[in-house]
């Protein structure tokens, strides 16, 4: 590797990809050494386009942060797109990277790869030990395939393709769509609109009892760059050829009720919060065991309330731009 490697960030306009770009620039990587393409410029589901791009650009490192993502509603409504698009993106990028001589690649997965009722906190070894959560199974299967793609290319070709599995992410650049967003951006939008319209009650999907872990996206980006640049011998000490992925989390979880109350406080909503138990809860608890990554020298830094405040500021700037 050269002192200034040529780095391709796939999905640079997304929440995670844009955070990785911010982190790289903040750590001294020159903007001219970071390669990006919009979807209009490069369709990652198109094998021919992806191969041509890699053959022309020849990056030395690849962050594969591009994906089709969404919340429970989106996963339930568009299962075909979620499995097809994600399988095509990761297969095309990983294979084209190998063909172009890329030695180092980081694949970003999701904590939904683990069984619905996995022992808590969830260790990397829980992969493929039980039934997945039905509401996002197609997406989870695609992400599992991405891990196995990296492992298989490592085994067969001796490349260094790593995988990180983040817990639930939030922060600047999130998707605030009223139906297709994840829980934090959905709550931020709902509470903000309720406050603005003086609505006295906000209804939250589910019972409020499931527990979730949340990680600020810039923490995730810092973890990704940290894992990418770890010495291979040190990384290999904490992984195995058939268990090469590493969890990324903050180390603690809260109930959805506690989350809703915190978002209400951050957004300034002072009305009543009700829960609609007729709506699906999803997995009852999902806390990641991030001890492997902690042993490799990384810890989350941003507290939930601090991160939610930053996310809300970002939302207001996007939705209510100043004149």
Automatic annotation (TrEMBL):
InterPro entries: Epimerase_deHydtase (IPR001509), GDP_fucose/colitose_synth (IPR028614), NAD(P)-bd_dom_sf (IPR036291). The keyword Protease does not apply. It catalyses: GDP-beta-L-fucose + NADP(+) = GDP-4-dehydro-alpha-D-rhamnose + NADPH + H(+). The record marks 110, 112 as: Important for catalytic activity. Signal peptide: none annotated. It holds the Pfam family Epimerase. NADP(+) binds at residues 11-17, 108-111, 143, 166-169, 182. The keyword NADP applies. It comes from the Bacteria. The active site is at residue 139. Substrate binds at residues 190, 205, 212, 281. Pathway: Nucleotide-sugar biosynthesis; GDP-L-fucose biosynthesis via de novo pathway; GDP-L-fucose from GDP-alpha-D-mannose: step 2/2. HAMAP family: GDP_fucose_synth. Catalyzes the two-step NADP-dependent conversion of GDP-4-dehydro-6-deoxy-D-mannose to GDP-fucose, involving an epimerase and a reductase reaction. Belongs to the NAD(P)-dependent epimerase/dehydratase family. Fucose synthase subfamily. This is GDP-L-fucose synthase. It comes from Azospira oryzae. The lineage of its organism: Bacteria, Pseudomonadati, Pseudomonadota, Betaproteobacteria, Rhodocyclales. The gene is fcl.
